[in-house]
Design brief:
- The complex is a heterodimer.
- Chain A has a single domain, classed as MetI-like fold.
- Chain A contains twelve helices and no strands.
- Chain A is globular and about 70 Å long.
- In chain B, helix 2 packs across helix 13, helix 4 packs across helix 10 and helix 10 packs antiparallel against helix 13.
- In chain B, a hairpin with a 4-residue loop joins strand 1 and strand 2.
- Chain B is about 75% helix and about 0% strand.
- Classes of the chains: A mainly alpha, B mainly alpha.
Chain lengths: ~280, ~280
């Protein structure tokens, strides 16, 4: 009996450890494969030129249009998400401070909102576009992505704000400042690390998401100059080039995937670094 | 401030209404049940049966769940109960990065690794000829995508189990694994179920990665080496032609509406469960 027990113990702990380490290996595998496959056709012109004539049949050019389009959309969407999300997150934590129930209900709804898949946002954005008689454009894509990332922004920021000690709120109010002053002056500074993480996380989601811009941003070989022009995006550039039967074009899709992966890795590592940096100055 | 908050909170309602209104023309003509149960799909002739797509979605999701669930449970237990502090510190960024990799990159990886794996190595073992673009490949890629999501929630769940309970169990002479089995898992049962449920919802709505490896053929087949066609892929693949065929746009919007309702309901239910257990 005792022997059996010991074997079971060993076996399951081994299995659990194996599962954990294999996850690490999995991440390594994914990154290595993307690197090895992508680095071959990654070049200067790939990064800094627009697709030229016959690009999709193996001609000259690069994916600058998609990189620029993705950057525009992600920046614009993050900006809108900040404008919508920042006051909302502060409001939950400062003005609703005494209403635990309401706070919890709002968080509950936001979490549920986070779960809605991006393709549904895409379809909704498309329905809106038709309603307003718009074409697929930079503006439509940006708004759709903004709607997608705002709940993420609020909840990530909120998570950090919620950890603010109650004494800080009380002290600030006792000094005679209004709730809004407390929110924007005290809580915002206190939650700076969370804010930075939230912004970078949302930006990463915005730049990597494909399903939401598929209908709404369109695709073009040019860098958009106005809000009502269509915009190419990096994920879609990868997707479309992979669909090509020509090997060189597929190779380029791998290179574009590498570019996207590097961008995401940089964002994610920066977020870690910065949030550590800002959390040194907060009051515990 | 209130305005921006309300705007966001009303969003699901607005999305739901917009998608419903768009799909209303088709719903009026066919009726909900016949749309969902019919498997005749030929938009040119005006037949819209969603059964193959719903089947495809459910099948891929279920398959991914079978792969992901045990890995997440074991790894969650290991990270919260047995792992050294150093390993936990390393694993946190690993999980975060895995969760942050965009779906299209997972798709590329799936095409490079999983599809050949399924087509060239797994299929011959079972004596079938397959291209590799299959339900199975979709399930595997989806599982990889859902693991960081579920694992994060599971770690949170296991961390809320009071230390005292474990210590009591150990003091009674139970081994560490026994304490985990009888105390930790039992105590966090609702949390585990909720994490799994939310993971399922996430898998159900995943679009691009799945669509790149699943083959996209309209059929109902139980063979995992056959191609399938999940709901999100249907929407994403056909948006280009949907305005040229009557009622087609309505059908795609109905698909989106279906996705929204299913996923929102799952989310609301399991999140409620989590909120309930957190309070206790």
């Amino acid at each position: 009996m005792k022997r059996k027990k010991r074997i079971e113990e060993k076996f399951f702990i081994f299995l659990a450890g194996f599962a954990t380490y294999s996850l690490m290996a999995l991440l390594g595998l994914i990154i290595i494969i993307i690197f090895v496959k992508g680095v071959g056709s990654l070049s200067f012109s790939m990064l800094f030129t627009l697709p030229k004539g016959g690009y999709y049949y193996g001609g000259e050019g690069g994916v600058l249009n998609a990189i620029a389009g993705s950057a525009y959309i992600a920046f614009g969407a993050t900006l809108i998400a900040i404008i919508l999300g920042l006051p909302a997150a502060l409001y939950i934590n400062v003005h609703l401070y005494r209403y635990r129930r309401t706070q919890n209900t709002i968080r509950y709804l936001l979490d549920a909102l986070w779960g809605i898949p991006s393709i549904v946002y895409g379809a909704f954005g498309f329905a809106l576009m038709l309603f307003f008689g718009m074409q697929a454009s930079l503006l439509a894509g940006t708004i759709t992505v903004a709607l997608l990332i705002t709940p993420i922004m609020i909840r990530t920021f909120d998570e950090v704000l919620a950890a603010t000690p109650a004494g800080l709120l009380e002290a600030s109010l006792a000094m005679g400042s209004t709730r809004s002053e407390t929110a924007f002056r005290i809580f915002f500074r206190q939650g700076m690390s969370g804010f930075v993480t939230a912004v970078l996380l949302s930006f990463g989601r915005g730049i990597g998401d494909a399903a939401s811009v598929l209908f709404t941003a369109g695709y073009t070989d040019l860098i958009p100059r106005h809000l009502d022009e269509p915009a190419a995006t990096l994920p879609l550039a990868i997707f479309f080039q992979l669909g090509s039967p020509i090997p060189e074009v597929r190779e380029r899709a791998f290179a574009a995937a590498l570019i996207l992966t590097v961008i995401i890795l940089v964002i994610s590592l920066t977020a870690r670094h910065l949030s550590g940096k800002y959390s040194k100055t907060i009051i515990k | 401030m209130i305005l921006s908050l309300c705007l966001i909170l009303l969003l699901p309602l607005v999305i739901g209404i917009a998608l419903y209104m768009k799909s209303a023309p088709l719903l009026e003509r066919e009726g909900f049940t016949s749309l969902v149960t019919s498997s005749a799909w030929s938009p040119e002739e005006g037949h819209f049966g969603f059964r193959p797509f719903i089947f495809g979605s459910v099948y891929v999701t279920a398959l991914s769940f079978v792969f992901a669930a045990p890995v997440c449970l074991l790894s969650g237990i290991y990270l919260t109960q047995f792992a050294s502090r150093k390993l936990v510190r390393i694993m946190h960024p690993v999980i975060d990065i895995l969760a942050g990799i965009p779906s299209v990159v997972y798709g590329v990886w799936g095409i490079l690794v999983i599809v050949p794996l399924v087509g060239e190595y797994l299929a011959p073992v079972f004596n079938v000829h397959a291209s590799g673009y299959s339900i199975l490949a979709g399930g595997i890629v989806l599982a990889v995508m859902c693991i960081p999501y579920m694992l994060n929630m599971l770690i949170e769940v296991f961390n809320t189990v009071p230390e005292g309970l474990k210590e009591a169990s150990l003091a009674l002479g139970a081994t560490r694994w026994e304490s985990v089995k009888h105390v930790v898992i039992r105590k966090s049962y609702p949390g585990i179920i909720s994490s799994y449920g939310l993971g399922l919802a996430k898998a159900f709505g995943e679009t691009l990665a799945v669509m790149m490896v699943v083959g996209n053929r309209v059929q109902i087949s139980l063979d995992p080496f056959e191609a399938g066609y999940p709901l999100p892929a249907l929407i994403a693949n056909n948006y280009g032609e949907m305005l040229s065929i009557p009622l087609y746009d309505s059908a795609l919007m109905f698909a989106a509406f279906l996705l929204l309702v299913i996923i929102l309901l799952i989310n609301l239910f399991f999140r409620y469960l989590i909120h309930k257990t957190k309070k206790r």
